[in-house]
Specification:
With 136 residues, this protein is mainly alpha-helical. The protein is built from five helices and two strands; from the N terminus they run αααββαα. The chain has a two-stranded antiparallel ribbon with strand order 1-2.
């Protein structure tokens, strides 16, 4: 299940992209418009800034703005930043692989095989969709 952190991060990025202005967007404006706690949103936007999706400006006229084009920000990249692995089990993760301690043979494991298929189909959707796809 998608965490609130990731859900709100996606909503905030989409809101900023929708503004399409050269001025940074205030956290309070995003929080009010998207019904997100401002304190929680600050933490999310800071994480997105640290990972190169957002820039920020302090002081009067300050706020957050997209560093990348909305069409260059995939849903998969946002989810990985805010959520971590997309794979449901660590033994099939492309970026966060860990062998399952209770599995003697990944190649013979039915769960492993199923989760590879789930991962690949999920990635196909998430890599194929960008923030731009959801800006009206």
């Amino acid at each position: 299940m998608l965490s609130k952190k990731t859900k709100y991060g996606l909503k905030a990025l989409t809101y900023i992209a929708r503004k399409q202005c050269s001025e940074p967007v205030l956290i309070s404006e995003i929080a009010e418009s998207e019904n997100i706690s401002q304190k929680f949103l600050e933490s999310i936007l800071l994480t997105l800034r640290k990972n190169g999706l957002l820039g920020s400006k302090k002081g009067k006229g300050g706020g957050y703005y997209l560093i990348k084009s909305p069409s260059d920000i995939t849903m998969a990249s946002v989810i990985r930043i805010l959520e971590g692995p997309i794979a449901m089990v660590p033994c099939v993760s492309l970026n966060f692989y860990e062998r399952c301690a209770d599995c003697p043979d990944e190649d013979a494991c039915a769960v492993h095989a199923l989760m590879i298929e789930v991962r690949d189909k999920t990635l196909s959707v998430l890599e194929g969709k960008t923030i731009a796809d959801y800006v009206n």
